[in-house]
Amino acid sequence: MNDTTPLLPCPFCGGEAHRFTIEDDQDPNHGGDVIVCRKCEACSRVEFGEKEGLEEAWNQRAISDHAWLGQAGLYRTRLEAVQNGEQHLEPVSPEQLFQLARNHVREAGIHA
Ligand SMILES: [Zn+2]
User: pLDDT tens for residues 81-98?
Assistant: First the structure.
């Protein structure tokens, strides 16, 4: 693992990101590593085992300009999602976005 990989600022608020290991016996993610924004507490996935690729995943998310999928639906920007209280998001590529839209149309057709 490379501890020196620099972390980009938080994709949501531009705050400083930091990586740490969850050390809480009550937490199901105990022992895993996670990257969290100090400002808005947006967090990366939790990584166990080799704990590799976490910085890269965070940094990719930080520079991605794709749409974002949260539990309540699609957001055009990460900021919109945060404003709606969602911080656990999946980036959606243009192809996935197209597929989602097509499914949406198809469902609408069935229910019409
Ligand atoms: Zn933040």
Answer: 888 888 788 877 777 777
**Residue numbers of the domain that contains 102:** 65-112
Q: How far apart are CA 110 and CA 16, in angstroms?
A: 46
Q: Does the predicted model carry a pTM greater than 0.90?
A: no
Tokens at 5, concatenated: 């990989």
Residues 85 and 46 in one domain: no
Give how far Cα 28 sits from Cα of 17, 46, 65, 84, Å: 22, 10, 31, 26
Do residues 59 and 69 both lie within one domain? Answer: no
From ligand 1's centre to the CA of 16, what distance in Å?
Answer: 7
How far does the centroid of ligand 1 lie from the alpha carbon of residue 8, in Å?
Answer: 11
- How far apart are the CA of 28 and the centre of ligand 1, in A? 23
